[in-house]
Queue: 3 jobs
Job 1
Amino acid sequence: MVRLITHNLLACHVKGCTSNNFPLEFKDVQVVVRQSEFNPDFLRGFIAKIEWTALVGAARELGDTSLPEMQPETLDDDFLHTLHHVLLEIHVEEGVMICPNCKHNYPISSGIPNMLLAEHEIG
Amino acid sequence: MLPTPDLSHLRAEDYNHVYEPAEDTFILLDALEQDAEQLKSSKPRIALEIGSGSGCVSCFLGSILGPSETLYLCTDINPHACKCSIASGRQNKVPLEVLRTSLAHPLIGRLHNSVDIILFNPPYVPTLYDEALGAQENTDVEGSWAGGQDGMAITDQFLPHIADLLSPHGRFYLVAIAQNNVSDIQRRMQENHALRSRPSATRWRRAPVGDTLYKDFMIL
């Protein structure tokens, strides 16, 4: 499963590709929504680790525009429910993630992203 | 005692390509269970298992911490292992986030001082160096055990990243055997990365074959 919580933690790691290598851009995606248990404590604890602009952009690439442009200062229940859905319930099953810098393609198949590089691409 | 994760969905054919949980796996489960209360009270947000194989260990950690309390990241270089880990997560109702990659490469940039629990049951069996590297390139079951000189060829690639990945109170669990030279691993982690470690003394056990001693080993 590639959920947006994980996508927010992935950067291109091709040898020499060290700037503008995050976030990876989605292309040709197939998305499945699966409900999961809402845990506001987890979200409050996790939010500091999120790159907000990257998350908003990635959600829009997947057709979800529910997140505000700026991360709100107060984490009310409505907002946390929205965040929960975007981070944890949208699964990218098929598609490609493309590095914005070096354009390396990382395919996603059956929910598993292939982040392996060929020998000459390893840093 | 917590039950071992349900792996009844995996078949003999799966274990032709993926490491079948064995004594070393169960020693790691025992170590996690022994620390269960401390692990829970530390409220970990990110767990990362390197080489998750069948997914057994991360599912077990999920049963300790709860499925929605933590993000369970799993990596494996072996595509069959990735599929098995995902399936085991579903079977045990722990959402495992599985990435096909070597070690933690695509995560290192973003997970600086962020991972609360790192789990690694590495390929620790001493073999020829080329055999260990070839096994990683072949991305099949041999890669789960062939460890090169002293069984440390793959582990040594990952150890330099531990200090950077771990959160301030993070923990790293590593399975090692006597031939890996555990005291040397501890010394290097202390000297090069200022990481203290505490081998679980109670964890010495006889391996099923030969006189290899297994030991799990924790860095605090």
Note: Chain B has eight helices and eight strands.
Job 2
Amino acid sequence: MNLIIQTLADGLVLGGIYALAAVGFSLIFGVLHVINLSHGILVLLGAYLALILSTTLRIDPLLTMPAVMAVLFVVGYAYQRLLIQRAVDRSPLGSMLLTFGVALMLQNTMIWVFSPDMKSITPGYALASFKLGAISFDAVRVSCLLASLVMLCCLAALLKFSALGRVIRATAQQTLAARLCGVNVRHVYALTFAVSAAFAGASGIVIGIILPFSPADEGTWTLNAFVVVVLGGVGSPAGALIGGLLLGIVSTLTAQYIGPSFPNVTMFLLLVLLLLVRPQGLLGNAFAPSR
Amino acid sequence: MTQKPAAFVAIILGCAVVLALAPLILPPFYVRVGQLMLYSAGLAVAWTILGGFAGYASFGHAAFIGVGAFAAGLVEERLTGLPPALLLPIGMLVGGLACAILSAAVAYPILRLRGTFFAIAMLGVCHVCAELNNNIDVLQGSLGLNFPAVAPAAWDPAVFFYELYLAAGVVVFLIAWQIQRSRFGAGLLSIREDEDTARMLGVPTERYKRIAFVASAVLTGLLGVIYAHSLGYITTDSVYRDDTNLSLIVYSLLGGMGTLFGPVIGAFMLVFITQVVLARLLDFHLFATGLLLVLLVLAAPGGVLGLVKSWKLRRRAAATAPAE
């Protein structure tokens, strides 16, 4: 009994991180209708930046978050304006391949710069843990889960209450109508991309603390983000949270009870099952653009 | 070209004969490059039956290479007593059949998705097949499979497989050509242009998509069986390759998406660039492929054939302008 509760708790922690890693992907897809296959690269970029900052400045890795997010915000804005914008109105396959090309180039660059070896970020409290009843929690994992949830709430509030959020939501709903009302759509696209990149970077820090990472991991994080978005629904932090928690629980349960070598199989079967039963995602409308 | 089928077939067969004689004068390295070119071109044309004609761009066709190769290898391993000349046809039959069953089974859920969702879901299919193949011991994915030497003793194996790829490539090409000029091909084209309208006008879109998917998968699987024999020994990693998944899209993109000759031109060009021009820059491969992809999407979304077409249009416009 304890084992299953422990597994579920681990799954929730992992799921919170999946959700944070996927929310940027979801936002870009909801607003720009672009599948950003370089999303995993942005996540890793955040992890590497945090690794460099926290080791050179000797501060807690979670404290590097504002700096990392600021850097990735700028990178994301420039990336969208210079490259994605040129392909955004073409076929969806075009923009997808463009981001894939960028992902390949950046992955190669990362291998040159950071070496292909596994790296990890180790905060000072890496080995601390506490018990709640019979369930044990690592201090690291709990702080990372809290950071993820706080960030997701921040994004939800940003989208719901701020002027920028209102403009982003308007553009996602009806690009033409938003343009007619005086919204500078290119600027909004770039800002959306920048916000997504910043959140990808933030999730990179959390991932770097919990799991080892290497440049070859970018595909995994992109694929995870895709699955989370399909499960939860496009464009909302709540959808990403639901999808992420579901994915986290399913992957820890299969690792515990079926075997650690089948992560993709269960993930994919879950996906197919959901497509057959509820093609629009658990929340929202995952497949409107696909139909 | 399409008006005179007999002339078209004659031209294709003529090209094939010229290519078939090429190994007599080519140095061994270029015979290997030629092998890879013909194999890639065959795969690219098989991919384009679904991805180009019907617009369902698959990102996971390496699944069928792997399933075909492993199905053939596992059966051939149990038939070691038979003469090698019989093993290859049996292997191709088994591999093709396995791909047909797999593709027919996944077609129902997968083909409900469109566009990028379909592409990524196919990537998922490929990863799942690779993972199952790798982790179920009977399938020997992580251990590896040996293939019998099927080349006749009198032939250099490299030349034998070159000719085999050529023959398979020509067959795949002619099948794709027949599909393109048939009523079925017109149906696929209408699905690519506007699936909902096509369905409304009475095109049996579901059935057409499924047939195209299975045909594309089986042809890919057959090429995968030949590929496995030419390697002699395969593991999961050597057939379920993500760079194959990507390359199949890039071939069509480079040559011209949705055309018949585009994938062939694209495959020949890309294999030449990566194998001959960039042969010494292994560290640079990922970067170069990525750069090529970015430049293609931004500068030439219609591929080489698209560039030729727009150049022709411009020349015609320039030629007619002074007359007016």
Note: Chain A touches chain B through 47 residues (CB under 8 Å).
Job 3
Amino acid sequence: MADETLDASGLNCPLPILKTKKALSKMDAGKILDVISTDAGSVKDIEAFCNQTGNKLISTTEDGGKYVFTIEKV
Amino acid sequence: MSDNNKMTIIATKGTFDWAFPPFIIASTGVAMDKEVTIFFTFYGLNLLLKDTSKLRVSPIGNPSMPMKMPFGPKWLQKIDFGPKIPNVLWNIPGAESLVTWLMKKTMAKHGVAKIEELRSMCQEFDVKFIACEMTVELFGFDKEDFIDGVEFAGAAMYFDEAASGDHHLYM
């Protein structure tokens, strides 16, 4: 289960990434963040973000245009 | 921080539409652990003004800009009026304000951040803003008109910032 949830629904690039960064910066290492987004571009973007920042993308799920990214903070 | 973690952007344009790329790239860069500096010169200085309400998008001589209605019936929203409207009509007083207003509406509808929001996020994430001192004087800007946290310097400082990075963009 996620420790925190960030709802970025309705927001467009680059806001989901910026808000994810902000949310993660307030969390301790090892904690889990769920990011909800309706921006299709965020699928590749969250992956790239985790790639560059070292945070771990545990899973990506999609349900009717709504994406949920589960990220573990490093 | 390692060298390839630094990036610089030279921002030279001061219209409403061109305010977005430098702030979007810079804020995303810092979010991804890059150290980012933006050097604002010539018309780009307008992006640092406290009052951004005067930024406009110009439909004149802007043939690639799609012009679609952000509201109304679906068939209407699909029409691109850009190529249909002769340039001469954009000289009518108020045309530029109308187009700027429509672009703001379109952006709000698509959940695009406002300029001020992106700019303050850049500052929150420690993007360094440098205003070109020479062009500040050249265009008669008053330093009081700019937001807090801006450094004033010249091209040499840009090179000093750029020297240790390997990712540099001109916008």
Note: Chain B touches chain A through 13 residues (CB under 8 Å).
